[in-house]
Every structure is written in C-alpha cells, then in structure tokens.
Design goal:
Blueprint lengths: L14 H24 L6 E3 L6 E3 H17 L4 E4 L11 E9 L1 H6 L5 E8 L2 E9 L4 E6 L4 E3 L2 E2 L12 E4 L5 H14 L5 E3 L4 H9 L5 E7 L1 H13 L5 E3 L7 E4 L1
Parallel strand pairs: 3-4, 10-11, 10-12
Antiparallel strand pairs: 1-2, 4-5, 5-6, 6-7, 7-8, 8-9, 12-14, 13-14
Helix pairs in contact: 1-2, 5-6
The chain binds D-MYO-inositol-1-phosphate and calcium ion (CA).
The site of D-MYO-inositol-1-phosphate has 16 residues, from strand 4, helix 3 and strand 12.
C-alpha cells in the first residue's frame, strides 16, 4: 500500500481537513462511550464470532454516531465499520471505523481501548486518528504530513536488534488460531526482550509510532482494527506491511 500517493484525490478533499475530521469523530465517539461506561458498574454484552468476541451497546452507539455524522457531512463517501453494513462511495473516498477497538478492555474496565477512524482512497490511507479516552491520548496522521500524539510529533523506534526488541502482539477470537498464535509466541519469547499484549490493535500500532514498543505483529486482523494505526505508525517512521493488501478481514500485519 503506497504511503503518500495522493494522485487524483477527489472531492477537493484536503488531507489536513480529513485528518481534523478523523480526530473530531474519534474523540467525540470515544468520549461518549467513556461517559456511558463510567455510569455502569456492569455491562450487558453480546457475543459475535465466538464466546470471547464481545460487543456492547456502546460499540453500536459509537459507530452509529460516526455513521450519522458522515452521512450528513460527507454523503458521497463510503463507510466500512466493524458493527454495520458497508456503504459504497461515489466520491472515491471510504471511511474505515472501529468504534471501540479493545472491546474486551472496555468491558473489563481496563484502559487500553479507543475509537479508530481512517479515510482511504483505494488502497491509500489518507488520514486517520485513534482516541483513547481513559489514557487521554489522541493519535493522528495525514499522508505525507507526519503523525502526532496530542499535537506532539511522533517518532518510532529505530532499533534493529531482535534480541533487545520489546514486541507487541495480539490474539484472535478463534480458538484454533489462538493455539497457533500461542505456539508462535512461545518460539519468539526467548529471542526478544519481552512481549506485550495490550488488547487493542489500534493502540499497538500507536505504541509502535510512539516508540513504546519496537515492533508489533498479529495474524487475523480486520481492516478497521488497523487502518488508522497503520498510517500513524508509517508517518512516525515505522515500516508497516500487511497482507492481503485489499482484504477486509484475516489480515496479517508486521510493524
Ligand atoms: C480486537 C483487538 C485485539 C486484537 C484482535 C481484535 P476488538 O479488536 O484489536 O487487540 O488482538 O485481533 O479483533 O474486538 O476489540 O474491536
Ligand atoms: Ca477492533
């Protein structure tokens, strides 16, 4: 996926304006979810692909909020979101939304969860933002314009040593895939400094961007988990590869 291919950017969209809208949507949606969460001692949850794959009313409300804002402000743009149906575009631009990435953390009251919003043109990610309300961190990037946390420029780790690398990873909801992921992490652990599992792929990529981890890998991701984080990590100087390039689910990523 090219990083700065802005050729043919339609709708006279400016990547800085798109970045501002990503921030606005992610901050507003995640803040509403956070306010709702503190008023509930216990949350009602439903499951999706497996018993461990949770969804709450707050995931759906946050995504609906973003969809409504986009359909009134940018009716010609498409939408791909974790909790709803795809909306095709007529403008060439598509918004990729994970209303709450780290839903398990959200349910259990752990802080690493946030809202991820990105906008793409074909395979090019133009702008993205991830807001983590409990951590009070807003990460954002625009293609060719760098990445920042709460307005301060981000620079990723430049380390190339595997032995001293702090490596983030995550695990899928499918138990067969998990046992393969467990076997892989068991092989990797003796070769690196240590492993971290935050519970949010979007946050893991932001941690790559911030140099809080040296690397991150995961199998079985969806495009909404990673779209904003990929651009934020790349714009902070990290190399990020994922495959298949045009897939929506079952993505393997290395950063
Ligand atoms: C999950 C998180 C987790 C990752 C999973 C994702 P969700 O997203 O990003 O860190 O390991 O692969 O599905 O379900 O919390 O939106
Ligand atoms: Ca997710």
């Amino acid at each position: 996926m090219p990083q700065t291919d802005l050729g043919g950017l339609s709708n006279s969209a400016n990547v800085n304006d798109l970045r501002s809208l990503c921030i606005d949507l992610a901050v507003s949606a995640a803040s509403k979810a956070a306010e709702g969460r503190v008023q509930r001692a216990q949350l009602e949850t439903e499951t999706k692909s497996s018993l461990t794959d949770l969804v709450t009313e707050f995931d759906r409300a946050a995504e609906n909020f973003i969809r409504e804002r986009l359909s009134s402000q940018r009716p010609q743009d498409g939408i791909v979101g974790e909790e709803g149906l795809d909306v095709p575009n007529t403008s060439g631009l598509t918004w990729i939304i994970d209303p709450i990435d780290g839903t398990t953390n959200f349910v259990f009251g752990l802080p690493a969860w946030g809202c991820s919003v990105a906008v793409t043109q074909g395979n090019t990610i133009l702008a993205g933002a991830v807001h983590l309300p409990v951590l009070r961190e807003t990460y954002s990037a625009a293609s060719g314009r760098g990445a920042s946390i709460n307005g301060t420029e981000l620079i990723s780790s430049q380390s190339t040593s595997l032995q001293t690398a702090l490596v983030a990873t995550g695990f899928a909801y499918n138990s067969q895939r998990r046992s393969q992921q467990g076997a892989l992490v068991a092989k990797l652990l003796p070769q690196v400094r240590d492993i971290r599992r935050s519970g949010s792929a979007a946050y893991d990529l932001c941690c790559v961007a911030a140099g809080r981890v040296d690397a991150y890998y995961e199998h079985g991701l969806s495009i909404w988990d990673i779209a904003a984080g990929v651009l934020i990590a790349r714009e902070a100087g990290a190399t990020v590869e994922f495959t298949p390039e045009s897939a929506v689910t079952d993505i393997t990523l290395v950063a």
